[in-house]
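Duplicate of #3305? Posting structure anyway:
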């Protein structure tokens, strides 16, 4: 019996998914556990597997299309099985698509390889008429469609992004002038091209499609900012001893400890001492969390992800550092799993590496607080009546006033400062 494969719920905040890639096509046979598609959610690109064996009888959506939760993705069943009752309003006929949409990436690659094979082994001869015809053919190709969008295969687009290549500088060699993998591989940047690209102004405004991640970030942060009464407290921390401690650790260890690791560890220990900060507003109750799970904000191309270091208070600097690096890498590659981004009780957001000295952050719901960490500054300070060089860092705590009061937040910050100014206490 044929069954419909619906869009599954792949994250706690997911409302729809975008088909990033189909690994099958209509007519393909699949086994239980086969990965049939990759779906972009608001947090990561997740794999969708077949739970039943059979043949792909119908694919409802194209790559790049958004599908709401529970929406139809495909139908799987026996070959030649009648699926008319499962199509609903869809009569089973594909909607008309342009020639460009009908040309898959694989065909482009095969055509390029066929052309290369055709000329392989032929002597190098110069034919003026042939060269002129070839030039005319190339000039007739357009890498942009009538609406100004650049025609490019998904693989070529990713390669160009990874290499930082400006697409407007490339002449596509695929069908309809589409830019394909070979064009990116063979592209050679002319001297001064980067500078010219930076100075070049776009001809008109560009509307950028909002990704699933950006949509959810916008929604959740707006709900947090306007739904939770924020207040902010800033404290200045002497980082001289923390700098010395870090240098000593990194001189003898294989894992390099960052200043952010120091902050995360200090926050985890302070949360143990101030459990009110390690809470969530649940409407009728305030939930005091038993576990301390600190999320670390990681900037990615499409926004911000907050992977979670679980039981942070029970872990040392080396383990915190290793987990942070691993999770940050997964976040940037969009390979985080739900259990790696869900369940945080506190969040640290650090912009110090960008030279930002002080900022305020929006609370990551359902956390009660988020700590914004600035850069370590070289400033003159007074010690024993003398002006001496100092190393200072400002941190700002954003708190939900429904859960945490000003005095509680101040006491929490005081504990964080004491731990960072005397890091040996974090080793006990």
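Output from current build:
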């Amino acid at each position: 019996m044929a069954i419909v494969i619906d869009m599954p719920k792949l994250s706690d905040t997911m409302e729809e998914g975008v088909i990033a890639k189909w690994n099958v096509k209509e007519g393909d046979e699949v086994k239980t556990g086969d990965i049939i598609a990759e779906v972009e959610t608001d947090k990561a690109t997740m794999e969708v597997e077949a739970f039943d064996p059979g043949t792909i009888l119908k694919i409802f959506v194209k790559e790049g299309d958004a599908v709401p939760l529970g929406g139809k993705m495909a139908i799987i069943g026996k070959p030649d099985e009648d699926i008319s009752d499962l199509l609903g309003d869809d009569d089973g006929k594909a909607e008309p698509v342009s020639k460009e949409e009908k040309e898959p990436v694989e065909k482009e690659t095969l055509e390029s390889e066929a052309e290369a094979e055709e000329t392989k082994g032929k002597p190098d001869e110069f034919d003026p008429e042939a060269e002129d015809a070839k030039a005319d053919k190339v000039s007739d190709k357009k890498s942009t469609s009538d609406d100004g969008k650049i025609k490019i295969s998904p693989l070529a687009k990713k390669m160009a992004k990874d290499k930082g290549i400006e697409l407007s500088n490339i002449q596509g060699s695929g069908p309809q002038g589409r830019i394909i993998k070979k064009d990116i591989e063979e592209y050679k940047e002319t001297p001064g091209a980067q500078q010219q690209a930076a100075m070049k102004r776009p001809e008109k405004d560009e509307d950028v499609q909002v990704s699933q991640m950006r949509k959810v970030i916008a929604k959740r942060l707006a709900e947090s900012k306007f739904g939770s009464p924020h207040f902010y407290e800033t404290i200045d921390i002497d980082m001289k001893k923390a700098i010395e401690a870090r240098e000593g650790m990194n001189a003898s260890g294989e894992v390099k400890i960052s200043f952010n690791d120091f902050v995360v560890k200090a926050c985890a220990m302070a949360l143990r001492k101030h459990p009110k900060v390690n809470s969530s507003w649940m409407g009728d109750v305030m939930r005091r969390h038993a576990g301390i799970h600190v999320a670390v904000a990681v900037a990615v191309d499409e926004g911000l992800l907050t992977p979670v270091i679980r039981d942070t208070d029970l872990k040392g600097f080396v383990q915190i550092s290793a987990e942070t690096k691993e999770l940050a890498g997964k976040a940037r590659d969009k390979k985080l799993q739900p259990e790696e981004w869900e369940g945080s009780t506190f969040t640290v957001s650090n912009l110090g590496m960008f030279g930002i000295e002080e900022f305020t952050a929006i609370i990551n719901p359902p956390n009660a607080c988020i700590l914004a960490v600035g850069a370590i500054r070289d400033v003159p300070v007074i010690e024993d009546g003398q002006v001496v060089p100092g190393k200072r860092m400002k941190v700002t705590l954003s708190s939900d006033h429904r859960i945490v009061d000003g005095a509680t937040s101040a006491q929490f910050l005081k504990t964080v400062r004491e731990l960072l100014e005397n890091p040996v206490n974090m080793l006990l």
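Confirmed duplicate; merging threads. The CA atoms of residues 69 and 125 lie 59 Å apart. The first strand starts at residue 3 and ends at 6.
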